[in-house]
Amino acid sequence: MGLDLGQAADFTALSIIDYQQEPRSFLVRHLQRFPLGTPYPEMVDRCIEIRQQLKGGALCIDATGVGRPVLDLFYEKGLTPVAITITGGDIARSRAEVEAAAKKSAGLFYTPSLRERMSWTVPKRDLVGSLLVAFQNHELKISSAIPDSKTLITEILNFRMKINTKTGHDSYEAWRDGQHDDLVLCVSLPVWFLMRAGARPGAKVSPGQMTGQNLSPAPTLTETPTDSWGNPRGFTLGDIPGL
């Protein structure tokens, strides 16, 4: 699951992705935009309810800005999401990695907590790159039954990477500037995490499964992948009340 938290004038968007390993695929089964003005505690309760119906799995949330206090609401409910803070840097790091390096330099022993292992700072290029790689390789499959499926595909295609020739840094048009960027981000979060973790189908993702590889942006897209499939194993939306 991926949750992009919007502020007062922005939508909060939720995605449900069914991950398959052989062959690797990310099946977008559900997209939901909470009505403007929905209280954050209500969103948290809804996410927990859906996750229980799905019998577990990773919940990845955007912990940038307003995401921090919402993250605390999940902690109070006994759930530790994958907390992703979006940065303009070059390397994705877990909070555990940062703390371990600091303690090591001070000659101190350190055992990271679960929250530290599940908290990440991730460059925009990694998030966008993972989504575009999956999209271009036809690994990202979007159910045609989802009302916002065409909107999501259009928004993905609208992303264009820019390189600053003076600094060498990249930037992305339309990142959190467009009307439907919340849909792109709520899908990017779990896709990035699953690529990095290398999770098995149906398996609960453990922080110990994460690797140190960085993801690179994909080339410009030239075609749109199929948005339908046979009947992949895993949950169906009919199993989840209210979906």
In short:
The chain is of the alpha/beta class and 243 residues long.
Give structural notes:
This protein is α/β, with parallel strands linked by helices and about 240 residues long. It has one domain (about 1-205, about 215-230): Nucleotidyltransferase, domain 5 (2-Layer Sandwich), CATH 3.30.420. Helix content is about 30%, strand content about 20%. It contains 7 helices and 10 strands. It has helices at about 40-55, 65-75, 95-105, 115, 125-135, 150-155, 180-195; strands spanning about 1-5, 10-20, 25-35, 60, 80-85, 95, 120-125, 140, 160-165, 170. Strands 6-7-5-4-1-2-3-8 form an 8-stranded mixed beta sheet. α2 (about 65-75) links the parallel β4 and β5. The longest helix has 17 residues, at about 180-195. It is globular. The relative contact order is 0.20. Mean pLDDT is about 75; it is low at about 200-243.
Number of domains: 1
Low-pLDDT sequence parts: 199-243
Overall, the morphology is globular
Cα-atom radius of gyration:
18 Å
- How many β-strand runs? 10
Strand order of the largest sheet: 6-7-5-4-1-2-3-8
Number of helices: 7
Average pLDDT level: 75
Span of the ends, CA to CA: 14 Å
Percent of residues in helices: 25-40%
What structural category arises from helix and sheet content? Answer: alpha/beta
Proportion of residues in extended strands:
15-25%
Q: CATH architecture, please?
A: 2-Layer Sandwich
Order of helices and strands: EEEHEHEEHHEHEHEEH
CATH topology: Nucleotidyltransferase, domain 5
